[in-house]
């Protein structure tokens, strides 16, 4: 019963570590050094490299030949279609806002129309958010790897303690001796 209780408690600890994110927990430096850099070497774990999967995917993609249909490569038909210019440039007829290039003593200054400024600001905001998301995903991956390391550490501790406890019970078999007078 004690082993089952410890097993459940340790599972809860591992799940708590697995589901941590940068927005809920800040990873201390000692945790990173101990559980990402130091312990995995000694318990037989290796962190998978993310670049390897991308490289493998590219290598397998280079080996497959491109198929063509009626002399055209896939996706090539999009280059042959004529695009409706009204859909691409809806402001084509009356565009008062143009881009100006002004000269200043320090160099040149590009003056953009308000709609183009807002579009650049939106694209910049999306790029910053994607960078933050990449950093958050990396940190979440670090927490998940720490959970894997702790789970493996608990597994080895559980196996060692269970084995030693079982051996101690079998080797200390003093209760197996028959008493001198079994029925007084």
From TrEMBL:
InterPro entries: Neuro-gated_channel_TM_sf, Neuro_actylchol_rec, Neurotrans-gated_channel_TM. The chain crosses the membrane at residues 153-171. Residues 1-23 form the signal peptide. Residues 1-170 form the Neurotransmitter-gated ion-channel transmembrane domain. Keywords: Membrane, Signal, Transmembrane, Transmembrane helix. One of its GO terms (biological process) is monoatomic ion transport. Residues 49-72 are annotated as: Disordered. Residues 49-59 have a biased composition (Basic and acidic residues). The keyword Signal applies. One of its GO terms (cellular component) is membrane. This is Neurotransmitter-gated ion-channel transmembrane domain-containing protein. It comes from Mugilogobius chulae (yellowstripe goby).
């Amino acid at each position: 019963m004690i082993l089952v209780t410890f097993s459940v408690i340790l599972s809860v600890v591992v799940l708590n570590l697995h589901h941590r994110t940068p927005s809920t927990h800040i990873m201390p430096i000692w945790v990173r050094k101990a559980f990402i850099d130091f312990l995995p070497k000694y318990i037989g774990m290796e962190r998978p490299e993310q670049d390897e999967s991308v490289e493998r995917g590219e290598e397998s993609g280079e080996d497959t030949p491109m198929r063509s249909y009626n002399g055209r490569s896939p996706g090539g038909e999009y280059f042959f279609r004529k695009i409706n210019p009204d859909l691409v440039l809806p402001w084509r007829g009356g565009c008062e806002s143009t881009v100006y290039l002004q000269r200043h003593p320090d160099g040149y200054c590009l003056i953009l129309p308000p709609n183009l400024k807002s579009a650049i600001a939106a694209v910049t905001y999306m790029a910053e958010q994607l960078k933050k998301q990449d950093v958050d995903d990396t940190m979440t991956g670090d927490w998940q790897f720490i959970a894997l390391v702790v789970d493996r550490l608990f597994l080895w501790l559980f196996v060692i303690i269970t084995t030693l406890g079982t051996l101690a019970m079998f080797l200390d078999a003093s209760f197996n001796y028959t008493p001198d007078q079994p029925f007084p």
